[in-house]
Each structure stands twice: as C-alpha cells, then as structure tokens.
Amino acid sequence: MQRVTWVDAENMAVGNTVAHKLVKLIRESGIDSGFSSGKRVALKMNTAEEGYEYGLKPVFFRIVAEMAYHATQKRPVLCDGQKLVDYWKNAKGNTFLSVTEAMGYSSETLGGHFVINGGFSGDEGDLFPCGAPDSEIAGVEVGTAVCRSDMLGVLSHVTFHPMFGLSGALLNGGFECLSARERTRVLRGVNPYMFNGQRPADRELKRFQRGALDSHLGVRASVEGRLFYVNYLWDVTPEPEYYPYSGRPVVENLGFLASSDPVALDAASLSLIERRLGSCQDITGIDFWKVLREAESLGIGKIEGEIKRLS
Amino acid sequence: MAEYTYEPTKWHELKAPIDGGRDSYQQKSWNPPKEKWGPYTEKGAAPVWFSEANATNWTESMICKAKDLFYEAKLNECFDKGDEVAIKIHYGEYNRTAILRPEYIAAIVEEVKACGAHPYVVNDTTLSYHTFDNMATSQYQMEGAIRHGYTDATFGCPVLIADGYSGEDDYRVELPEGLILKETFIGRAVAEADAMIVLAHARGHSITMYGGALKQLGIGCQSKRGKYITHLAHWGDPHDAIGWPKFTDQCPGKACKFHQMCDDSCPRGAHHVTEHGKVWYPERCRLCYSCQVTCIFSGMSGITFEEAYFPNAMIAHADAALGALKCFERGKVGFINHAIDVCPECDCFPWAGLAVCPDIGIFASKDLIAIESATLDAIDNAPISPGSVADEKGLKPGEDKFRMINGFSPRITMAAGEKIGLGTQKYELINYEPVMSPENAAKWQIRRAGDGNHVPVTVRLRKVFNRHDLATEVMPFRRAEYNKEWVQNEWKKFDPFKGEPPE
C-alpha cells in the first residue's frame, strides 16, 4: 500500500503557518530523502496563463526549493513549459517570462533558478521511450530542464482539467514535462480550450489521456525513476492553469499532500475533494477514477494508499 | 535554395534515449535567412555617432547620451511598434567586474519600450572556456547574471538565455558567402526576434584580439553548436592542421601543481596527465579552449595555441556574425559600442585587467563594420593608462593597441567582414554633444518632463511639506555653539599635509 502524507489547512497558528505545514509535509513524508549534496534537483511547477488568476503563491514553491538547496547545496531549477497551445498565440520564451513575471514567479521569488523547460522555443529536449508495448506514441521528447536533472520534484496545483479530469501529479509529472512540440504531438489536433461549446469526441479524449499517461512513463525514464510529488489542494478551480480565465475555487483549501506515488497521490487528492463535493465527474465530464485505473494498469502506481494526516 | 526536409523520428524503433548525432529535429532545423538581409551601407561612408565619456551636467550623463545616440543614429527605426526586439548583451563571467553596468542596458530597454516594441535581453550559453566557467550552462550563467545586476527587475523586461536551457535551442543558418564557415547555428531567441539592438562592451580579446559589436554576433549570438564550429573552423588532421590545441613538451606532468585542474578542464576527457607529461586524444577534442586557458593562465606552458590559429578564428567569427545578421531584414539590427572599461580581455574572463586607456565614450550605428572601425580607431588614438598591459608593453597613442597586446590586428576581422557584406570600414564620425537646456536637462530624468501630471520632485515635495513640514520640524536641533573663528580661520586654513588638525 502506497503512503500519502497529507497536511491539512486547519489549526493555523504562530508556529503552524502554511510554511510550517509545508516543511512538516516534506520532512514527514520522507520525499526529501533523495536530496543529497551536489544533486541537481529540478522542480516542475505550474505557471498560469495570462488571465488565470488563481496561480499558487511563489512562497509555496520557494519553501520546497529552499529545502532542496539546504540539502544539496545547489540551487534547484524551477521550471515550467510553454503553454499547452498558447491561447494568446504568444508562444515564445520572452512572452512566457513576461506572463510568469507578472504572476510573481522569478528566480528572485522562487528560491531557485527559474527557467523555461525546453528553452526559448520550448522545443529543446531529449527523446525517451515510454516503455508500454501497446503505446501509440511509443516515445516522448522531455524538456531539457527536466531530463538533464538528477531528481525531479513535481509540484502540482490541483485543479480540474477538461481533458484529463484532474490536473495533479500524473499530468504535471508527465505530459506537462514534455517539450512544446511533443505536447502538440500528444494532443493530435485536439483543441484543449473547451469553452464556447467546443468539446472533442470521447474517443479523442481517451487517446489523449492514454498519451498523457505514456508521457509520464517517458518522463520517469528520463530521470531514472528519481521523482517525488507534492499536490497543492489550494484554490482548486474548475479550470486548469492553462486556461485564460477561471471560475472561483469549488472547494475550500484542503492543504497539501506528498508521496512518491503519483497515482496514489492523485487518488487521495480526488478523494479529499469528493468528500466535500461528492462525485466530481459533472465538473469536467470525465471520470478521473477511470484514468487512475488505467494509470495503475500501466504500472505508474497504485490507487490504494494509506493517508497519513498531519495538522 | 534547396527545400528543407527531415526524416521524422521513428518512434516505435526507439528503445533508449537518443544520444547526440545529427538525427534529431533540432540539429537539422533551419531558419531560412531573410530575403532582404544585407549590409546597411550600400555605398560611401557609413555614419557613426559618438559621444565622449565624461559629464559635467545632467544632459552629459553617459546614460542620457546613450539614449540620445539611440535616436540620433535612428536605432529606433530598426523596429516597428509591437515588434519583439532582442537586446543582445554579454552577461559576463562570474567574478568579472569590467562589464557593462546594468543602467546602460536598462536605458535602451526603456527607449525600446517607449517606442512601443517589446524588448527582451538575451545572451547564449558559452562553451566550457575554463575549469570554473559559469556561462556554459543556462543555470549558472543566469546566477552569474543576477549577481551582476542583470535581472528582469533591473532591466524591466525578460532576461533569458537565447539558446535554451542546455544551449541546444537553435537554428541552422547557411552561409554560402562565408570565407571559412558555410553554416552556423544561432540561438532561437535571437533568430526569432523581429529586430535586434546589440549593446557591446568594447575591449580586448585573447582570440579575436578585440571584442565589440561584431563579436556579440560572431560568438555571442552563436548557440553551443555555432560556437563549436566557429572554434573548430580549421579542424583537420591534428598533426598538420592549425585548428587544435598545441601540446608542447613543456608539460611537467604530475609535478605541475595544477595538473588536477588541467585534467578536470576537459568536458570530453580528451587529455590526461601522466608522470611526465600529457596524453591527448584528438578524436575527442572539440577545441573549447578550456585546457589551453587553464594551462596558460595558471602560468604554465604545456598546452597553448598554434600561432596561425588566431587569424583564422578571427575570419571564422566574422562568418558566424553574418549568420546572426542574416536572421534579420536589412536595417533591423542596430549597434551601440560602449568604449568604457576598455580592458585587454573578454567579458568571459573571470577577472579584469586594468583598462588599457581611459574611458572613451559611446558609439552608435546601423553599420557593423563602420562602428567597429570607429571604435578601434578611437581606442588606438587614446592615451595609455598607467599600469595597464599597454603601459607595460610601452605602447604609444596611435599604435594598433590590441595588435600589440594580443598579437594580431583586429582589422583582419574588419577586412574579412567587409568582404562578406557585414558593412564598410569607411565611416563618417559624427560627434554628438548634448545642448544644455532646461528641456534637455529634464528629458531623461526618472520622470520625464511633459509626462502627464509630471512635476519636478522639488515641487512635489512642497505639497508634502505643506502637510507635514519636516524641514521646519528638524529645527532647532542640538549642536555646539557656532564659532566663526574656528570655521573661518582654523579649519579653512588647515593643510592636511602640514601640521595637526584644529582642536
């Protein structure tokens, strides 16, 4: 049974602030056990699209970055790739940085070196096999900031996702780590902006979901399995961060979860949300439990997990 | 021109990561040169604007004059409103102090923005120039840049690495005109810009003898691939080709106290120390200069350069500069040379020698070779700085400074550049001196005169003092009784080199 550590958002006090809770989460979950002197740690974060106003606060990432720095004595790299298919048609490194800067994300605020995964064009990457025999995409090109690191921390803002169901460890640690053109290949022409009445056929969505899971296997291969995951259940919006807008959060802030198993982590995250909201399938039209079962069948992780709660 | 095609990756045959080779998309990616590229000056002498260093009033601040020259030289016409404009600078090696001060870059960024364009500041990664190089990786280079004060906050625009996280985000550009190189690779953040303003620090260079605007293109805009082929311009049989390190019989082997530093200097393990010398594996060497720099600058003489290497490197980097220029339409690139802190070596050195001459000033032009020629002439004609390497070598004003200091005349590069269409060596120097007037004094201050509700800070403070009269509140304050004799006679007449200070 996989272990998921959860630190809730309750009992805030002097000495038990959000920062204290995050430090406690990292230490108690043991995900920092892989940090050792000299290791190059990459932290894959989510930076929001222009118009999406619920991005995570920089300090949420900075705390993990500083812990990595103290353990490794090397400034970690914090990265995100160019947007899925840039809504504003500004898919170049300089405009990407202008938007992230406006969100407050920079090397100065994040406690590490903030870079574009895949460089200015987003297309700088290496090819890795996905390993699943029946995979249609077979291999993926992983962005350089991720695949050139010794260890990858996947720091995910949990939101709902119109094509995947839930945006969390599985998506952020897989599809979102690919180079820009590779994500275009995995998308296969599907329009990811499902508003104004647009929605691809279920068959296309299923192909995307499978491709995204295969991508996770490719990313895992790129860092030789040295990954850890943190899910931030904070401002859980109905739209993901790549949307150019968002409705208000659908559930109160539930805290933060960490694990070395992305399937168990996303399953635990969804369980916590569903305890408040009931089934979430109506929000996106996607049964994320099915996606989790498929991930489990591909060997990415186990749904069943033991949740250890901290406060 | 041949149609560019590439074989798609055979995904299902992929069993393991692809390691190098020329089979990946990026290495074959090709950014076709702009049809309308070409030397800015079609005939006659090219205008070069110049403003001297030194200032005695607001209008003569070097920052204000840099802004004036930007408009005098019509660099604002290099781009249109809404254009993405790359501002190419050198981020400077870690522990280097003689680099452009951030204000010079911020000043031009401000004007590009004021003209309605979108600037971003760029530099490419370098090769591993020495054991402790910080510019070879994006992460270390940006940490160094932040330490120099080169940040989004200081410039007011994105600051990024042009060729990606690892130096592999580039385009290939064909150079049929090149005297040596027939292709090169340019960082994408440069190649994809609509226009470029090059802000160069004019100073010496150990390989190209001098480094200014042309070197910003010929090396600075090259991605790692571009830099490798520029270094390797004359590769061939290691026994008779000049494009390789020269391993002498002077290496003392393990008796050299720097032998571990030397062994560590090669990113490809192309040499290792033995008891009494060095073994070199030429098939692994890609001429990054790291072993040569490590040996030479630790005062040893086991690894050095073939003397004939330098002129070829100078010509090759002019070819490579053409690669960068061909990514833009004619007239879409502007140049500013800052002949300030004119040190003998490049900004990629982790130290700075004394400037070889006093600060000269700022040059601006749209013609690359003309601005370089004007800058070189001014440096040559400048006095010699006491204690500098130019002084040690006994140079006189008017002599070819960097030829005497570094070995060859930088005008080799300029002549080669002129041949391939980078510009003209004929220039008309236009001295720019700002006129001291109320308008000009106010023009480039922190809030521009004429901007909206702008009032001078002194006038603004009147309102503050009307609400809270701090200037009156400080009065009276405690002090010793005023002693006119003590001030007017004893201190006023005190000579610090004669006698004791008054009681």
Structural commentary:
The complex is a heterodimer of chains A (311) and B (503). Chain A has helices spanning 18-29, 58-72, 93-102, 107-110, 144-147, 169-172, 180-187, 202-222, 262-277, 281-284, 288-297; strands spanning 2-7, 41-44, 77-80, 113-116, 125-129, 139-143, 151-157, 159-161, 165-167, 227-233, 255-259, 305-310. Chain A has 311 residues and is α/β, with parallel strands linked by helices. Chain A has a single domain (34-256), classed as LarA, N-terminal domain (Rossmann fold, 3-Layer(aba) Sandwich), CATH 3.40.50. In chain A, the strands form 3 sheets. Chain A has an 8-stranded mixed β-sheet, sandwiched between helices. Chain A has a two-stranded antiparallel sheet with strand order 5-6. In chain A, strands 8-9 form a two-stranded antiparallel ribbon. The longest helix of chain A is centred in the C-terminal third of the chain and has 21 residues, at 202-222. Chain A is globular. In chain A, 59% of the residues are buried. The model of chain A has no long low-confidence stretch (mean pLDDT 92). With 503 residues, chain B is α/β, with parallel strands linked by helices. Chain B has 2 domains: 29-232 and 309-431, no CATH class; 245-305, Alpha-Beta Plaits. In chain B, the strands form 5 sheets. In chain B, strands 4-3-2-7-14-15-1-16 form an 8-stranded mixed β-sheet, sandwiched between helices. The interface between A and B is large, with 37 and 38 residues.
